[in-house]
Amino acid sequence: MHPPPRFAVLLCLGVVAGCTVGPDYSEPNVALPEHFSAQTSKAPQVAAVEADLATWWNAFNDPILSQLINRALGQNLDLAQASARIEQARAALGAANAALLPSATVSAQAARARQSLETPLGQVLNSAPSYNRNGSAYEANLNAGWELDVFGGLRRGKEAALADYQASQAGAIATRLAVVAQTADLYLSIRGLQARLDIARHQVDTRQQLLTTIGHLYAKGLAAELQLNQTQGSLNQAQATVPVLQAGLDTAMNALDVMLGEAPGTDSARLTKPAPIPEVPGLSDMGTPKDLLRRRPDLIVAERRLAASNARIGEAMSEYYPKLSVAALLGSATAVSGANLFSNGASQASAGLGLRWRLFDFGRINAQIDLAKGQEAEALAAYRQSVLRACEDVENAFSALINREQQSARLAQGEAAYAKARATSLVAYEKGVVSLIEVLDADEHLLAAADGRVQAQTESARAAVATFKALGGGWQRDAAEARVASKRP
Question: Is 411 left (phi over 0), alpha (psi -120 to 50) or beta?
């Protein structure tokens, strides 16, 4: 005995239900070295404090820096935009999930009509006995429909939406890291500029005192006018550096306020008092280049976008195959009165199986598949390039950190030597052994050495920030993944 046709249809659907067209995704392999070249060729100076990569900014031991970063994480508007993008991706994933489920709608209507007796229809009907020109209609229905994802096009769409959602999550973390790093960078720049301003103002005071001394000697005829003019010119040159540094300081403070999501000038009073440039913390373990694939959120973004583009190939290929759907209606309709709407005689029902097949549209489908494959190839190249650039970021940042530390140490030694030379030349000048040119020259060298030492110290701290950022420091992957899983639709 042959089974009824409907069972044959269900059997066929059950056989092919597990079919999902398109390529299955596998994370690409990128050839990377076992270690960073900076790890094998050089080693940073041993620091007093080693940083935890997840909260590296606390290792600078600067409470103001930590407070500013916490405020930026709570108020920054780039982070607010990233959070909004997550909600958009979450909504898209919810829509992709819903597409796999049956849908149902409830509809109801009630109508009251009055037939005209002046029309041909009205005249014919009016000739019938007991014709009532007033009529009513009542109807209530439950409509249900379900697209059977036989060939997996909807499942591929869900796969792409999920990858996009995960990319938005990782993108928000990447934005978070950028905000933390930029906030720290601006703060360190502010402290560096304040230190340079202090040196410049001290140099102005020193040259002002020298000018006063030369002025007294000139009034007594013990100094030439040339010496007086040379001292005045040197003072003016030192004074000219102050406005430039002050402008840079104002710009950095305004940028920091914007980073905190506040109007420029909000925190200027709080940071007006200079403070030392924080000491650079060390890093016990940089990890390997392969660790970047898990630690750098921008690489996770690129990899998830690649996964999404791969899934969209299958979504496009599913258009080759027929789309099957089932629909059903259960309801009641009557033209008598609302009281009879739910009686047995008023009930109505229907069921159907739908088929949609783009049978003569394969040329357009081929174009859509080619487009999806091209986008996947672009995403793969972008991912590989992102990995290489991430390694480049680490190498450059680590090299800058090492060399800036060495530069800072050498300039500190040079500054001490120039300070002694300046004191010696001033004593010699007062005794008439050397000319004023030697004193001014020693001043110039001392100023340049002190300013260079502060710049190198600032750049060393900024290079440390860049290193932590390049390594993907500033978040815990396991904790972040747990939060993502708990919020996943």
Answer: alpha
Buried b (16+ CB within 10 A) or exposed e, 247-260: ebbeebbbbbbebb
Parallel, antiparallel, or unpaired: how do β-strands 347-356 and 134-148 relate?
unpaired
CA dihedral 45, 49, 50, 52 (to 10 degrees): -150
Q: Map residue 269 onto helix, strand or coil.
A: coil
CATH architecture assigned to 18-107+139-319+367-487: Up-down Bundle (1.20)
Q: Name the segment(s) of the chain with CATH classification 1.20.1600.10.
A: 18-107+139-319+367-487
- At 371, the amino acid letter reads L
Give this prediction's pTM: 0.80
Averaged in consecutive runs of 10 residues, what is the pLDDT profile of the chain (489 residues)?
45 53 89 77 52 86 92 91 91 88 86 81 75 78 87 90 93 92 94 91 83 81 80 86 91 91 82 87 77 88 95 92 88 69 76 86 91 94 93 90 88 85 80 74 80 90 91 73 46
Closest CA to 344 of 329, 361, 332, 352: 332
> 54 with 297: CB under 8 angstroms?
no
Which contiguous run of DSSP H or E holds residue 140? strand 134-148
Q: Distance between CA 224 and CA 215 in Å, rounded?
A: 10
Q: What string of DSSP letters covers 99-112?
A: HTS-EEEEEEEEEE
